[in-house]
Specification:
By secondary structure, the protein is mainly alpha-helical. It has one domain. The chain is built from seven helices and no strands. It has helices spanning about 5-15, 25-30, 35-50, 50-60, 75-85, 95-105, 105-125.
Length: about 130
Amino acid sequence: MLSEREEQIEADLSTQVAPALHIPDAVRMGVIASSEEHELWLQGHLMGCEGCRAPLIALLLKRTAISVGRPPEIPCAKTRNVMFRYLEGGPDPDDATFVHISSCDLCDDLFFEPAQAVVLKEYEPEHVGEID
């Protein structure tokens, strides 16, 4: 069961398409290696690129449906690589990847924080600037 807000977001997302391989290789490698400079670049990109933020928002909407009580089972580097493939039109992340992102503060900040900011800005502008 989706709420009215989630249905509106899902409808908007269905019209957006991510271009394949548009994130520079240097950024991909920097993010996988946990380079702060490249992580910041990616966060800005994810907030500004319609094609990238659509799949992230769709993934964010699934966040409440999956239990994340267990610790991450895969390393950050593998998770980030899976996420790059997902952003470029690949398959949805598996449960282990999703659990890792949801329970790892670094990966959560990298992928879900930009998506949350965009959702607030686009769908709940009255709440922009509030702290969770």
